[in-house]
Specification:
alpha/beta, 14 strands, 12 helices, Alkaline Phosphatase, subunit A
Length: 469
Amino acid sequence: MGNRPSFVIVNTDDMSEKLMKYLLPAGRHMVRDLGYRFVRYRDANVTTPWCCPSRSSLLTGLYTHQHGVHLNQDFPPGADNGGAPAFHSRGWNEKTFFRWLKDVGYFTGFVGRYMNGYAEVGGVPIPDLDQSIVIKTEGPYFDYTLNENGTDIAYGSAEEDYQTDVLRDHALDILRAAPDGKPFVLYFAPSAPHVPSVPAPRHANELENVKAPRTPAYAEPDASDKPQWVRDQDWPPEKEQAVDARFRDAARCVLSIGDALTAIADELETLGRDDVIFLVTDDNGYLFGDHRWESKKAPYQKSVRVLLAAASNNRSRIPANKSYPHLVSTNIDIASTLLDLAGATPTHAVEGTSLAPTFTSNDPIHDEIYYEMFNYVAEGTPARPIPSWRGIRTPNEKLLELFTGEREFYRLDVDPWELDNAIDDPTHALRIADLAQRLDVWQRTGDDSVLTSGGNGGPSPDGFGHRTS
């Protein structure tokens, strides 16, 4: 295909796989009324299930141990390893997919959440943006500030100030500003459904009977085979009630995201844009009680598995609705996909694989994918609940290594909820050793200078990725 498609990249925040169904009305509208065709990725995974590391990977196509943004904010202070300040000090904001697409003629727009610590860098965060609308105030859905193309604008508490709706309207304005005949890339990143998960007033009374799904892993009753951090978690009734309330409000927030997707698709139809690819994803999953854990950063599937869907109103690109069953590595593969479809050249070697072949084929594009999570603490302070960890995943297996020395191995084909840690099963010993070797080789690639400590308990003796030779 000689023509370059336009892109709408939707990156939500803390969108558990369990919340995806609340986007279905928007998807049905796009398919039935606007002629879009979808690919739903049933095994989409982020490489690091945490906001800033994941977003840095999406923008650069690099793993966390390569781009060096390990955390949401520097730790220890001044370590240059957290959030937007680290992303900028390392120069990555000038080496994102926006640069690559702009170099081949794309109009570029950003709307929504950038990264924690953005207020410290301020202004237009990525120099290759034609339009930039960035959330400056972390968290609130009302009474917040946006930086609009370099100028701070405050919003209040009126119904029309609801943040997701305001971001939607800015996205529509950017689409209208894109020159006719020129491809565009719009990155739309609402804070929703991140805590405090305040729904739009129009959705505040919906879904009153919704609760967090009681999966087989919910409040895992027997955690005797799990690492200490899981065994230390309790699940009293008040926590269960709080998680149910959090899930219900998150679902209501997702309804507003669906409203925004519908409005964006409708505007593209009005503008006559007939070669657009949507890529809808999230920065991490959310457990909502699975394995006794409420939120993210955990190594389990509901933390690393995320929403990913591709859609196009050009049937020569995606000819039919389909479900793709194989592994994809979401926040790494998207950059490679943009490069492939736009015919662009990156500023550095990227790590992912283009999703474009999956639009028309069900052949696998990955034999294995990798995970990593850095979660530092200061010496002498209480440990954070989840230690640093890394992992390797094949279609049917998953090996996890924690900085504490604990390990986990799951046969996902027979234990998809990760209830039976088979690390000590001698029948898997050779396979575990092979996976461990591959994991070690993988994480020794890239810039080892960004790995200066290993996680809970202070500096790592061999660094989870440090070269030892």
